[in-house]
Specification:
With 150 residues, the protein is mostly helical. The chain contains five helices and three strands; from the N terminus they run E-H-H-H-E-E-H-H. The chain has helices at residues 14-22, 25-49, 63-72, 110-115, 130-149, and strands at 3-7, 90-95, 100-105. It has a three-stranded antiparallel β-sheet. Strand 2 and strand 3 form a beta hairpin. Helix 1 packs parallel to helix 5 and helix 2 packs antiparallel against helix 5 (130-149). It is elongated and about 60 Å long.
């Protein structure tokens, strides 16, 4: 079970789609890597605030699990335990030449936390906020501007 968000030509908004069409090959891959770096930081910053991409607060841990977690790993924020789902296990991947960026975690409970599963309330940690969308278009515009300028 994995959790990830993908940005492709098919799922990008109209403005980002137009901008992606200007870039090809290595230039597009470089732009997507810059976007991936931005999304890593943005996702981790939201996780530190314990909010979903839409700004809603995550549901609290159940009292029983919170007691257990506080005893075993005092001070760690929600969604961080032994396998730091939103820390060192969060990553992105750019498929060379395909115009595709994937962001997600290799931690097996990532999707369960995001979507909710077996009594776990959904804590939407993956996705794009409005600010993320704006920043991704800005990054695309910067890359295109450099490409046009030569």
């Amino acid at each position: 079970m994995t959790a990830r968000v993908e940005i492709t030509r098919n799922t990008a908004g109209p403005a980002l789609k137009r901008l992606l069409n200007v870039l090809e090959g290595d230039g597009r891959d470089l732009m997507l890597r810059d976007m991936g770096e931005y999304l890593l930081a943005s996702t981790q910053a939201r996780a530190a605030r314990q909010v979903a991409p839409d700004g809603d607060a995550w549901p609290a841990l159940t009292p029983r699990y919170k007691r257990r977690k506080d005893k075993l790993r005092p001070g760690l924020p929600m969604l961080k335990f032994d396998n730091h789902m939103l820390g060192d296990r969060l990553s992105y991947q750019v498929t060379p030449g395909a115009g595709e960026l994937r962001l997600g975690t290799s931690v097996r409970y990532g999707a369960a936390q995001h979507f909710g599963y077996g009594g776990i309330l959904p804590r939407n940690w993956l996705g794009l906020s409005e600010d993320d969308g704006t920043e991704l278009v800005t990054l695309a515009q910067e890359h295109i501007g450099r490409a046009v300028e030569g």
